[in-house]
Design goal:
With 390 residues, this protein is α+β, with helices and mostly antiparallel strands. It contains 13 helices and 17 strands. The protein folds into 3 domains: 134 residues, SH3 type barrels; 135 residues, eRF1 domain 2 (Nucleotidyltransferase, domain 5); 104 residues, 60s Ribosomal Protein L30, Chain: A. The strands form 4 sheets. A 5-stranded antiparallel beta sheet has the order 1-2-8-3-4, with helices on one face. The chain has a 5-stranded mixed beta sheet with strand order 11-10-9-12-13. It has a 4-stranded mixed beta sheet with strand order 14-17-15-16, sandwiched between helices. The longest helix has 19 residues.
């Protein structure tokens, strides 16, 4: 992400003009913009001739390129397509679009978008500053693979992007069809190899993990090494030490948690955000199994523990920070600041990562504690609501 302009007054009101450069940037903006904000960007609108006459070439309407600003009422993030859609009433004087008319502004990569807020809080500013640093690009590549199926994923600071999917019907290893198995497997491995060449940028990626059940991952690792030498692919040859094969129970996305927790992978990506999150989440599960009075989840229990200065590590999903009301968001931001003020570590997980998905299944808020709080463990402590904090 590139910050073209950032103008914020002392009271927190202001505008940021951002250039979207990667899929990661779209996720960041999705978490920054909220209902009630104003979004400005280039868009297209189908315009009809008010007189009922043809508009150019006999057509009754045409698409006109416009710059509009809308007051945000709806936000949609389409990860597969790679675009954001902001819907709401137009607030810009324009000959083609009336004031108050509903319009949708679509933002994708390489487009500029302006976001105006009545109050930019510290979390929003930190998110923009972090996204503007190039080192947060996708620095881990994972190829989930088993016989006949392979998926190449790029794991960045905030999102996991699927770069390739390879599927092939392989003959059985036994019986009359066995003669064609080796040939079909060779074609499948070559397709995986080509996907790696196209999808992995070694100037950014710190580690390529080949993961899955059985021996296919090992066969692919050997094929990558040998074929790269034959083809003179220097990038892959020079970085072969960054290619790691590890076991996973399947080639599907849920098995990514196993991959991220593998010691061989942890050694390669020890300084990445994804690795820190994976370690923290596993540490929470381990603590919950060992001493449940030192591992709380659910906003009510975690907030109570934070107020007692007991939180050592706070795990919170960014989906929680996309609260329905400004007051509820401020309540959760206060939780983050309370933990930091007491010397605790705060990790904001991306809901678009497998670790964030796992955290979301246990309310999206969890914490490991410095000391046990058995007196709180069995209490029913409700989560704050939008009604309480409008």
């Amino acid at each position: 992400m590139k910050i073209n302009k950032m103008s914020i007054a002392p009271d927190g009101a202001g505008t940021a003009v951002l250039l979207v450069e990667t899929a990661e940037d779209l996720w960041e903006i999705y978490n920054i913009a909220r209902e009630g904000d104003y979004v400005e960007g280039v868009t297209y609108r189908k315009v009809h001739d008010d007189r009922g006459e043809a508009v150019r070439g006999g057509r009754g309407s045409e698409k006109v390129k416009l710059r509009l600003k809308v007051r945000v009422e709806t936000i949609e993030y389409d990860m597969d397509v790679g675009e954001l859609r902001f819907g709401g009433p137009n607030v810009t004087e324009n000959e083609h679009v009336k004031l108050g008319a509903h319009h949708t502004i679509t933002v994708d990569q390489h487009k500029t978008v302006g976001i105006e807020k009545a109050a930019w809080d510290a979390q929003d500013r930190e998110r923009i500053d972090r996204a503007a640093r190039p080192e947060l690009a996708a620095d881990l590549a994972v190829f989930m693979v088993e016989e006949g199926r392979g998926v190449l994923l790029l794991v960045g600071g905030q999102v996991t992007v699927q770069k390739a999917r390879i599927e092939a019907n392989l003959p059985k290893k036994t019986g009359a069809a066995s003669a064609g198995f080796d040939k079909a497997l060779g074609k499948f491995l070559d397709a995986c190899y080509r996907a790696v060449l196209r999808g992995v940028d070694w100037s950014v990626v710190k580690c390529l993990v080949l993961a899955g059940p059985g021996f296919t991952k090992d066969q692919l690792k050997r094929y990558l090494e040998e074929q790269a030498v034959r083809d003179g692919e220097r990038g892959l040859v020079e970085h072969r030490s960054r290619v790691v094969a590890v076991h996973a129970s399947s080639s599907y996305k849920p098995a990514m948690r196993e991959v991220m927790a593998d010691p061989a992978v942890q050694r390669q990506i020890a300084d990445t955000k994804a690795a820190r999150e994976a370690r923290a989440l596993q540490g929470f599960y381990d603590m919950m199994a060992r001493d449940s009075a030192r591992a709380f989840y659910g906003p009510g229990h975690v907030i109570a523990a934070a107020e007692m200065g007991a939180v050592e590590t706070l795990l919170v999903s960014d989906s929680v920070l996309r609260a329905r009301t400004p007051g509820l968001r401020r309540k959760y931001l206060e939780l983050l600041e309370t933990v930091r003020a007491s010397g605790g570590e705060v990790l904001v997980f991306s809901a678009a990562h497998v670790t964030g998905e796992a955290l979301g299944k246990i309310t999206g808020v969890a914490a490991t504690l410095r000391f046990p709080l058995p007196e709180l463990e069995d209490l029913e402590l409700p989560a704050p609501t939008a009604e309480e904090y409008p």
